[in-house]
Amino acid sequence: MMKENESSRQGELSREATLEAVLFAAGNPLPLSGIAAVMDCEESEVVELARSLQAKLTSEGSGLTVQKVAGGYQLVTRPEAYATVERLSQVTDRHLSAPTMETLSIIAFKQPITKPEIEQLRGVRVERALAKLLELGLICELGRKQVIGRPILYGTTAVFLRCFGLDSLDDLPQLPAEDPAVRLELEAEAAGQSGKADSAAEKDSPAEDSAKP
């Protein structure tokens, strides 16, 4: 009986190995709360286990590592293995076209944003790009803008964060500061259009009654 108990204990996985198995089986990022529930432990322990597992994989020269992404943890391939892993695209090519990527970039930085607003920025229609991004789960509908016509608002998803290795939208790179000269030019153009509109409105408005003697 003693030998059976010792064998049973020797066959048990370490907590780090258990976390590794959970992350591998999940595939997608798992939130802290989800991992804690599965492993029946506190979230603080999960954080420590993730750090320990990451250090262990690094010291062993593993091709995998633990990455914090989309508000959770995921088992991913190391950057050094990217060139080899990228060859998988020869089997399933999921690359986005340049126009679709441009549309995704606008949504990522300007969300929530409507289709007309995207088209105004791009200068072309974006139905196909939006359909592709929705199909891939990179964007989703966030509701409707409270203006005339109530157009749909679009934003990015957790899939977007995972695909681009981001923990949150705060990790997006900062856009370059707007050129003051360009901003002044746009403001002047807007003011000119506003002036034309005011003039047109004055012409269309009925003349005031002449003052009676």
UniProtKB/TrEMBL annotation:
<keyword id="KW-0963">Cytoplasm</keyword>
<keyword id="KW-0132">Cell division</keyword>
<protein>
    <submittedName>
        <fullName>SMC-Scp complex subunit ScpB</fullName>
    </submittedName>
</protein>
<dbReference type="GO" id="GO:0051301">
    <property type="term" value="P:cell division"/>
</dbReference>
<dbReference type="GO" id="GO:0051304">
    <property type="term" value="P:chromosome separation"/>
</dbReference>
<feature type="compositionally biased region" description="Basic and acidic residues">
    <location>
        <begin position="199"/>
        <end position="213"/>
    </location>
</feature>
<dbReference type="InterPro" id="IPR036390">
    <property type="entry name" value="WH_DNA-bd_sf"/>
</dbReference>
<dbReference type="InterPro" id="IPR036388">
    <property type="entry name" value="WH-like_DNA-bd_sf"/>
</dbReference>
<dbReference type="InterPro" id="IPR005234">
    <property type="entry name" value="ScpB_csome_segregation"/>
</dbReference>
<keyword id="KW-0159">Chromosome partition</keyword>
<keyword id="KW-0131">Cell cycle</keyword>
<feature type="region of interest" description="Disordered">
    <location>
        <begin position="183"/>
        <end position="213"/>
    </location>
</feature>
<dbReference type="Pfam" id="PF04079">
    <property type="entry name" value="SMC_ScpB"/>
</dbReference>
